[in-house]
């Protein structure tokens, strides 16, 4: 009689945590991740080439980027370095503590697919990181509200108007609704089109503007002036 095959071992997502070693919010969130059986967690507080070497070797599924208070330039630089070191589409999640600020704006511009509050519940931490590991982008009204707050007074980016002019009127309509946190289904219902049509428009928007995902599209919508906090 043939021996019964052992069940395949469940995949464990590889999570790298990078950032300042004096950030209590980052330490708390790291503890939550380390207690979750679905994750293998690499914590790295080194800088420069040492950090990039470790990330290149580990090839994590998700990188949680901590905060460097008062240094939005440093956190954006680190985010870009992490993306380069990964050698593939990076799945960065930014840690946010308190009100959204310049640091969160910087890391979102640099390519983070979402953000996670340092005081988030355990279930929320696990859900956000699992979704990021699967390549999903956090969306919905809560995420849109946080982004709107982060870009309450965004500086107009040079050339944003010309880039916005590349979009058709319907593509601008879709982008405006994406920035407000609507799902593809909700956008389809509001514009009276099919979900596949919305996806086609969204792909065209990302391609024309050279953006990676809905988060970067939302950032662009605010920085270009297409959407304004508190506007219709």
TrEMBL record:
| Gene Ontology terms, MF aspect | DNA binding
What is the source species? Cryptosporangium phraense
Entry keyword Transcription: yes
Looking up InterPro entries in the UniProt record yields:
Sig_transdc_resp-reg_C-effctor, Tscrpt_reg_LuxR_C, WalR-like
Q: Which GO terms describe its biological process?
A: regulation of DNA-templated transcription
Protein name (Swiss-Prot/TrEMBL): Response regulator transcription factor
Q: Which UniProt keywords apply?
A: DNA-binding, Transcription, Transcription regulation
Q: Is Transcription regulation among the key words of this record?
A: yes
Q: Name one Pfam family in it.
A: GerE
Boundaries of every HTH luxR-type domain copy: 160-225
**Highest taxon of source:** Bacteria
Q: Read off the SUPFAM superfamilies from this record.
A: C-terminal effector domain of the bipartite response regulators
